[in-house]
Design brief:
Number of domains: 2
Structural class: alpha/beta
Strand order of the largest sheet: 6-7-8-3-9-10
CATH architecture of the largest domain: 3-Layer(aba) Sandwich
Shape: globular
Largest sheet: 6 strands, mixed
CATH superfamily of the largest domain: P-loop containing nucleotide triphosphate hydrolases
Helix content: 25-40%
Bound molecules: adenosine-5'-triphosphate, magnesium ion
Amino acid sequence: MSGMILEASGLSKSFGGVNAVRGVDLHVVPGELVALVGPNGAGKTTLLNLLAGQFLVDRGVIRIAGADVTRLDPSSHARRPMFRTFQNGGTFAKLTALQNVAVAGIVRGMRRGEAEHAAAEALARVGLEPVLEWTADHLSGGQRKLIDFARLLLAKPRIALLDEPTAGVNPAIMDVMRSIIISMRDAGTGFVSSAMTCPGFLISVSGSSFSLAVRSWPAALPRKSAPTRLSGKPTSHEHSH
Ligand SMILES: Nc1ncnc2c1ncn2[C@@H]1O[C@H](COP(=O)(O)OP(=O)(O)OP(=O)(O)O)[C@@H](O)[C@H]1O
Ligand SMILES: [Mg+2]
């Protein structure tokens, strides 16, 4: 009803004495990109783990397309509209590029043949057609990140969580990622993407008529500090701290 595809409020998570995430509120509407900005250890990955259901929240509520998924694990049906990538890549070393991507379809209920067909198409789109049959352990770090993007294309999620997608990636691969994000954003997918700084990637994405929302919560910020929200023309220094 609210039109929000992701709504999180009051999310908190501690590990022993470490308050990794404290009282974070986050809302994403279709076609919006929310960048998580903060230094190492700020809690970006932890927040993505909470949103994706990999970690259980200590406090707070998470809704996807209106459904309360706070206590549901990542494989639950209500979480299907969500897709996430991992900071260290999520490939299986001994599976081929094709199999690695097809898995994303199979876990979403596709038959194997259908998933492999969609995987081949997605891999062609990211430029990995020549290495379709290579196992992931023979691919470069950048190519493995493109496998994540091929999965993203195949999954066609309503909400995508990306963890430092462009870290350590060359400009050609960054261009592919940017074009995929733009086309998916235009189709209405919402994104939450962590970035340690605001790299050129996000700036130039916003330059291509993205509405960029940047929220920053270094561990030192007080609970529910006001986020900085930007539309249109951000500078390279959106940090609110
Ligand atoms: N599974 C875990 N067990 C214990 N502590 C954890 C766990 N995951 C994260 N932490 C701690 O929570 C804090 C936030 O870590 P997190 O990885 O979320 O930060 P980050 O913003 O993603 O950092 P980076 O920029 O390095 O990726 C850190 O102090 C970290 O050590
Ligand atoms: Mg991280």
